[in-house]
Amino acid sequence: MAAGVVTVNRDTKPGIYPVLVGMGITLKNMMKTMFGRAAATVQFPEEKRPTSGRYRGIHILTQRLDGTPKCVACYMCATACPAECIYIEAGERPEATIEKYPTRFEIDLLRCVYCGFCVDACPEEAIFMSRENDLVGTSRAEMIIDRDRLMERAKLVEYGPGYRPTDHDVRRPVRIAALERLKQEHGIVPGPPAR
Amino acid sequence: MGGSANARGGCFEMSTPPKMTKITIDGKELDVPAGTTVIQAGLMAGIEIPHFCWHPDLPVDGNCRMCLVEIEKMPKLQIACNMMVTDGMVVRTTSEKAVQAHRTTLEFLLVNHPIDCPVCDQAGECYLQDQYMEHGLHDSKVQPEEKVRKRKVVDLGPIMLDAERCVLCSRCIRFEANVTGTNSFEFVNRGDHTQIATFENRPIMHNYAGNLADVCPVGALLSHDFRFKMRVWFLEATDSVCPGCSTGCNIFIDHRDGEAQRLRPRRNVEVNKSWMCDVGRTEYKRIALETRVTVARGRRSNPLTLPSPPGGRGGPNDWENTSGPTALDVLAERLEEAGAASAFVATPQATNEDLFAFRALAEKVGGMLDFRVGDPQDRVRVREDNVLLRADRNPNTQGCLDQGLGRAGVKEILAACAAGRIQTLVLQGPELLRLPQAGEALAKVPFIAVMATHEEPALERAHLVLPAAMWAEVDGTFTNYQRRVQRIRRAFAAPDSAVPRWQLAAGALKRLGAAFPAATARDVFALLTRSVPDYAGLDFRALGSGGRALPERPDQVATQEARA
Q1: Opening angle at CA B247, ends B245 and B249, nearest 5
Q2: What is the C-alpha separation between A141 and B320, in angstroms, rounded?
Q3: Are B404 and B447 in the same domain?
Q4: A21 three-class SS
Q5: Is B109 helix (H, G, I), strand (E, B) or coil?
Q6: 0.90 exceeded by the pTM?
Q7: Residue of A93, A100, A172 to mutate for B, most B C-beta atoms under 10 A
């Protein structure tokens, strides 16, 4: 017999009984919903479904204490992004200690696939994800959000932080792979050089 | 990338065939010329020995100690950059001792190196990064706050200095001492406080500052122009030739999304070694897409210019956009009418292929032909300085001369225009329109067609403007002052309906009923090699990345040196 074909036993006679069983289940659920307050429906937007602490919602750019972006415009997120939805323009900060910062930082939220690679790639913990997931707009242009909107902290309080680098050590896989390559190709055992 | 082996020093050409020496590197046996160093021999065998201070076009200094290799019968490791090969030498670059030496040296170099990679423009083409990933991968024993702090973000004009990132390889010092002779840089202070500096932080004033950023293996010296503009791993490199002067330095066009971001020298020992000048480096800015001529246009007021539109002529703006084919129809019609009463002025900015097609058009019509606007041929070999720059700022004056385009004389063409003997004037570039003294003569010509790349006031003197592609947007060849034929390659598409100049000429030729069997620049070059004896036997592919030098023509050298 060809795979994936379902065989049905036609010998049993279709009676009223199975229909009643089915209707019974439906009726039970209806009663639960109406009187038992166990409805699966959430009254959005007044009510919101709880999300996991690692939920990957709309991005947030973190700030320094003086309110400037923590981002140093290294383009790691833009490099890692599989959807190519991050656009950055770098500028020079007047103080010599930090040097570089993003004059423009835009994410096309319609293009974004919410994979969280940007968070993994960031060396400064400057970008992470919030749990904000109700994305509404009337045009495509509106869905490209700029640096200042990405830095709005009010949203963070409302929705809570989502996926962020503390969730796991994101740098390890790259390093482990490189060390393994070194061991295989040159026979070097990882660790500090022997004296 | 085609030329990267070349750029890192893959070829070492000697003037006389030298004595050969047999050596073994990492089990590979090879014959190398006597006098070669181990690091060069390694490159010939395709083995890159890690290094910082060694540079193929700078004298050996041997200070970074990164290139230590194990040589049989020698008690200690030796630096490959300063060790000459001897017969029967057996070198190991990946033995346990050598690899351990690379790792310890690298750890030492990184002791005071700041963790700047996220904000450092060198990231992605940094020797320290590459070699850490290849040979290091150690955990730092130094805490960031323990590192010696040095001066950062020092503006030296075209160059930004960050002394903290420096590995003290002295490449910049040797470049200044040996190539430009300006000696701007020196080490100051002692021990781990040593850093590079210019006297009183004076800016770099010479025309070769960009090379300092290129020779610096780390991010200590970076280009001001390219600062924070782009991460280098987004860039795509295309081999080309600088169009800035008749030297024809070999370059990479680094571009992204159809826009050139910077020009970088590509190593060619015969032309520019590893260098190029800052004037040439800014050439990419002239591609400026905002001011390009993107569609063909003609004048409404000139009855010769365009087929009459249904609504009649006139209107507030005298120019009317039209399609490329229509514009070529008009041009061909005007040329057919004018016949010998036509004149053609080529431009030394064009490729050999453009010039060949243009010459074929002029010969078909039988008009006057020249290219010498501003007499560039007098300056083709004149040096502007002692390094690379030449007085003739056209890349292909020699190509014009080789193809015999200097015929009628531009003065004679202008005289004929002034006398009303020219009905149709075809310009390959807008140079003639820019000449103030040509205005009166040009006003007498009923129809002037110009192939233009950029909008400029001079185009107001023309009646038909054909959009042409820039050098970075076409395939072709330039012939430099040495008579070296070098290839330029198309890095990205020309905007809108701009096409290579040879295609415009070929289009007009076809409309005049002449055969021009060429679909690509390579085909045109093949036609050219059959027609110009000096170029016989050359082929696009055989030109390779370094070009091919043509034999000198004794008569030409004599006349030019007399002029110089």
Answers
A1: 95
A2: 34
A3: yes
A4: helix
A5: helix
A6: no
A7: A100
Domain CATH for B57:
3.10.20.740
Residue A19: its H or E element: helix A17-35
Measured between beta carbons, the chain A residues lying within 8 angstroms of B139 are: 192
Read off φ and ψ for residue A149, nearest 5 degrees: -70, -35
- The CATH fold of domain A59-174: Alpha-Beta Plaits (3.30.70)
- Look at chain A and count its residues: 195
CB contact, 8 Å: A45 with chain B?
no
Nearest to A79 among B103, B229, B231 (CB): B231
* Tokens 């800014």 found at: B282
Evaluate whether residue B279 is within a structural domain. no
* ipTM score assigned to the predicted complex: 0.80
Q: How many CB atoms within 10 Å of residue B346?
A: 29
Among A96, A178, A192, the residue with its CB nearest the CB of B133 is A178
Contact B172, B196 (CB under 8 A): yes
Task: Give the three-class secondary structure for B451.
Answer: strand
Position B371 in a domain: yes
Burial of residue A48, with CB atoms counted within 10 A of its CB: 0-12 exposed, 13-18 middle, 19 or more buried: middle
Grouping H, G, I as helix, E, B as strand and the rest as coil, residue B447 is strand
- Of chain B residues 100-159, which have a CB less than 8 A from chain A? 100, 103-104, 107, 117-119, 123, 133, 137-139, 141, 152-153
Chain A's closest residue to B108, CA to CA, is A193
pLDDT digits (tens, 9 = 90+) for B63-119: 999 999 999 999 999 999 999 999 999 999 999 999 999 999 999 999 999 988 999
Q: Is B194 inside any structural domain?
A: yes
Q: What range does the domain containing B29 cover? A: 4-108
The domain ranges of chain A are: 59-174
Judged by a CB distance cut-off of 8 A, whether residue A178 touches chain B is yes
> Residue B240 and residue B480: Cα distance in Å, rounded?
13
